[in-house]
Design a protein that fits this description.
Two copies of one chain form a homodimer. With about 270 residues, chain A is of the alpha/beta class. The first copy, chain A, has two domains: about 170 residues, NAD(P)-binding Rossmann-like Domain (Rossmann fold, 3-Layer(aba) Sandwich), CATH 3.40.50; about 60 residues. The first copy, chain A, contains ten helices and nine strands. In chain A, helix 3 runs antiparallel to helix 4 and helix 7 packs parallel to helix 10. Chain A is globular, with a radius of gyration of 24 Å. Chains A and B meet through strand 1, helix 1, helix 2, helix 3 and helix 4 of A and strand 1, helix 1, helix 2, helix 3 and helix 4 of B. Chains A, B: Pathway: Porphyrin-containing compound metabolism; siroheme biosynthesis; sirohydrochlorin from precorrin-2: step 1/1. Chains A, B: Its EC number is 1.3.1.76. Chains A, B: InterPro entries: Met8-like, Met8_C, NAD(P)-bd_dom_sf, Sirohaem_synthase_central.
Chain lengths: ~270, ~270
């Protein structure tokens, strides 16, 4: 008998939760679409630089409330892509990483230096939302040859990634995509299916996430970070599935500590 | 009175629908986590290269079914990151794009050449899933200094992006993220809220997406690609919202053509 592996369902996107906390992001353009990009970026704690000769009231508002990292009020220039780069620092890090036989201590040190370089000097994403299709395409090509990740509004062909409809409730985030086929439908699914079902009377998903996070982290501490990983995951899965969303919304710290006590006993019995 | 703009809800991720169709992606590692990465990548039509000395049965299965672009059965080497790059071709494209005063025709030509370069020579993403933390970190640093986008399994600090729980029904794709706090909960939301509500008797979201896509594309043809964009969007929004998901699942081509006739009359009246 042939083994069964999940069958490929082609023609989708790769849906990902991008981490841009404290990382520089460049937005070229100052209109409503640019403002919507800036909003999503700020929700993910990015350091946003906007380059545009004219800006909308929303971007003005972000700027006045110190939500932008930098506002550059002029047309885009090629050098903006590498606006914060520091060539000598970059060359130094590259030479250090290329040295033969690095010790793990040296790698750790380089890790934090390269992390710093990335957070201070390198754009994690480039987004353009300008009305000029030729210029858009030119910025796209410049960005790609310099190995940047870019989204060009209104030019799906020139996008490494698309946006979609977002449901957000603190730690819980959901992206709905129709793979470009019906953006309106994704908003309807958000309004008519996600919101009513995720914000029901008696159910609080942020409380649930807090409660499950408390159990997960404390169990790790009790049993040991690198001990019984599979057993821990299995135990948490069973516990999570044993109660309804309503019940998980109501549990208090003493209930959670009781669960942890049970978990400790059960996992130690396995030794 | 101060204008109201959406308030920032910080500490989230930036949820994105990544486009990797026909683009090379490198997976370092051959175990179960690597296999799950490969599965997600193949669902988005990526050209997947796996580098690993030993591979799981699932990856073996993908390879035997010609689903991988290349399988390299040995340990990772630094040169793997630029495995398909072609320096002289890349330099040529860079010189061409740097030429002063490019015409829009020249930019179009470069667009397709650079697109080809990216699809044939450049990794769009790097994913590692190996048991060696020092080596993982080293690959991460190499990748970042070369401006690649990377996810290192089990090392959240060394990730440009995270995966989450995915609901998939053909064109409809949904990503559920707890921002790392409770992966199990995201799977429960998938099973207990998304599946039952999106796969109800009498509701077929793929039919709905097809129907709404048919209307969107045909209206564009009738009214003209660049005409009345705002009015078209508004009309489609109103139409979409006027019927239930059940009704949209039942409409046939003749119903849609009647809607389009109404739309045409209404939008032409506006002239």
């Amino acid at each position: 008998m042939e083994e069964e592996f999940p069958e490929i369902q082609p023609d989708g996107s790769l849906l990902l939760a991008w981490q841009v906390k404290d990382r520089p992001v460049l937005v070229v353009g100052g209109g409503d679409v640019a403002a919507s990009r800036v909003y999503h970026l700020l929700n993910a704690n990015a350091k946003v630089t906007v380059v545009a000769p004219k800006i909308s009231r929303e971007i003005q508002h972000r700027y006045e409330n110190n939500q932008l990292f930098e506002l550059v009020q002029r047309e885009f220039e090629d050098e903006d892509l590498t606006r914060y780069e520091n060539d000598s620092e970059f060359q130094r890090l590259t030479r250090q990483l290329d040295a033969p036989d690095l010790s793990s201590k040296q790698i750790d040190e380089l890790d934090s230096n390269i992390e710093n370089y990335i957070k201070n000097h390198r754009f994690a994403l480039i987004l353009t939302a300008i009305d000029d299709p030729i210029k858009s395409k030119y910025i796209y090509l410049k960005a790609k040859l310099n190995n940047f990740v870019i989204n060009v509004a209104d030019r799906p062909k020139n996008c490494d990634f698309y946006f979609g409809s977002i449901y957000r409730n603190n730690y819980l985030q959901i992206l709905i995509s129709s793979n470009g086929r019906s953006p309106r439908l994704t908003r309807l699914i958000n309004d008519k299916i996600l919101k009513p079902n995720l914000e029901k009377e008696g159910v609080d998903f942020n409380k649930i996430i807090d409660n499950l996070g408390y159990i997960r982290n404390n169990l790790k501490t009790i049993v040991g970070q690198n001990n019984k990983i599979k057993e821990r995951m299995e135990w948490i899965k069973n516990l999570t599935d044993s109660y309804t969303f309503e019940e998980w919304s109501k549990f208090e710290k003493k209930d959670l500590d009781n669960f942890l006590l049970e978990g400790k006993l059960q996992l130690l019995k396995l030794e």
